[in-house]
Amino acid sequence: MADITGAEGQQTHPAMRWARDILLRFLRAEWSGALIAIVVLAIAIEMVTDGRPFFHPTNIMTILNNSAALGIVAGGMTLVILTAGIDLSVGSVMGMTAALMGYLVSYLGVDPLLAIAMGIACGMGVGFIHGGLVAWFGMPAFIVTLAGLSVWRGTGHLATGAQATPQLPSTFDTFGRWNPFEPLRSAYQAGELSAFWQPMGAFVDDNWVNFFRTFQMSALLFVGFFILLALITSNTRFGRYVYAIGSNPSGARQAGIPTTRYIVMVYMVASVCAVLGALLFLGRAPYAKSDYGLMWELEAIAAVVIGGTSLFGGRGSVWGTFMGVILLKLINNGLTLAQLNTFWQMVVTGIIIVLAVALDIVRQSRDPMLVKRFLAALAAAMTFLTLMTPASLWVRATIALMEHNAMQELQATGATLAPPQAQRVMNPTAVEAALAAQADAGLPSAALMVVLLVALAAVARPDHRVTIAALMALGAGLAVVLTAGYATAAPLVMLGAVALIAQALVKPLGRQAR
Questions:
Q1: pLDDT at 21
Q2: What ranges do the domains of the chain cover?
Q3: CB within 10 Å: which end of the chain, N or C, has fewer?
Q4: Nearest CA-CA partner of 177 in 102, 70, 284, 98
Q5: Confidence at residue 372, expressed as pLDDT on a 0 to 100 scale
């Protein structure tokens, strides 16, 4: 009796059945996709980059530091989306309250802690307005918060003249760049530690460069915030009611849950989280300005949905949002290393949001064919992001040359160029550099375009043969980016290949799950 009979009459070893059950239980978790993507990207980055290992503690702390402000904003957004709502104003609330706190401290001489308290109170008021309009007047959350996106951004600009403040007091550093181990190290170096603390001070000083140097308060607050939020959503009446309202609002009301009160509370928490995100951002920025948080509402929504929280409400997890934020930062950092400018990164954010919504729809349907198409679409999206690395250079060089030639033709006709037109005329050295960039990026762009077309074919026809062809094409694309000097984009190709491999496992895993 060492073996057991499977669903199709085959003998299955107990250990294999246990491993299968563990895998299926993991894949059913909403956050499993984000975690797999983080692991694949991290391993891929480790493989293709030189120097310090990716998993070095200083790199991990740097990622957490960079994710802190957005992560706290996304944490508040998670609660709103769990109630089947949306808050498009969090970026504007962040910018307005950051400017307000900086203005009060810099120009009115208000104590920093009092200014922070006033910023939090302002956030609570904004959330109360949003929640009241949604819960008491029945207005769509999309319309209310879309209006708030404009109102609060404009209010921040009007209140501060859209001008940056002088350098902020060191009090704000406590919530950002301040290193909690710095006082211990300084006291050790000055010989001021007691015998009890001396060994700890020596350990911190010896490992300062390789370990403790990148510890910042923002990362610790980020992790602590999500631990607290996870405990609240999992173990309190507030958390249970939030899930109940998102799952079935009318049923929650019939069960005696004061839905209006809790919806207002959720929007207040989301706005306060935006203020806390502003506070952590100010802790790492030298001054305050009302244009902070631009487009953060989209990144926060993307992080929440990537982490497995359903846009239809009632299903998701706080830790999924945590992983979604980390995944977004990994992708953005990779694109930055690939020298893509901010405008291309905005395109990437939009693509990620579309993929995240598609993933939510696939989860709702549980159709194996939709799952296979989504995984193929993920591979195609990763190929497109890889293509952007050489293609953006080729497009930039081609447009510059076209503008240069057009302006020279105008000059040949005797026309006088306006200053913006004259800036398009390049000197011979710049022309040679543009021609060289065009030539270097042309062949990799064409090769990756072919790979993208094959990956799109796998979306249209997700059968076994097309999937194998797409996987082979991605292997060729990986060779192209490595040999052409675009190794920073290689992790995206590897993630696409993993998605195609997973596509081949959809059918057997679905059969086992049934």
A1: 73
A2: 26-178+216-365, 377-513
A3: N
A4: 284
A5: 83
Q: What's the token pair of residue 63?
A: 């990622």
Picking from 406, 392, 399, the residue whose alpha carbon sits closest to that of residue 448 is: 392
Alpha helices in 136-235 (DSSP H): 141-160, 182-189, 198-206, 217-235
Summarize pLDDT for 460-506 with one digit per residue, the tens.
888 788 888 888 998 998 898 888 888 777 888 888 888 888 877 77
Q: What 3-state DSSP class applies to 12?
A: strand
**Residues in CB range of 319: below 8 A, 6 or more apart:** 31, 226, 230, 307
Rounded to 5°, angle at Cα 197 from 192 and 203: 100
Output the six-digit token pair for 69.
Answer: 């402000």
| Average pLDDT over all residues of the chain | 85
Residue 77: pLDDT band with limits 50, 70, 90? very high
Interatomic CA distance for residues 102 and 281, integer angstroms: 12
CATH of domain 26-178+216-365: 1.10.3470
DSSP class per residue in 330-374: HHHHHHHHTT--HHHHHHHHHHHHHHHHHHHHHHHH--HHHHHHH
Please state whether beta strands 11-12 and 4-5 pair in parallel, antiparallel, or not at all (unpaired): antiparallel
HEC string for 176-189 = CCCCCCHHHHHHHH
Encoded tokens for 455: 């990956």
CA–CA separation, 478 vs 252, rounded Å?
51
- Mean pLDDT across the stretch 90-113? 92
- Among the listed residues 325, 331, 283, the one whose alpha carbon sits nearest the alpha carbon of residue 308: 325
Q: What is the pTM of this model?
A: 0.81
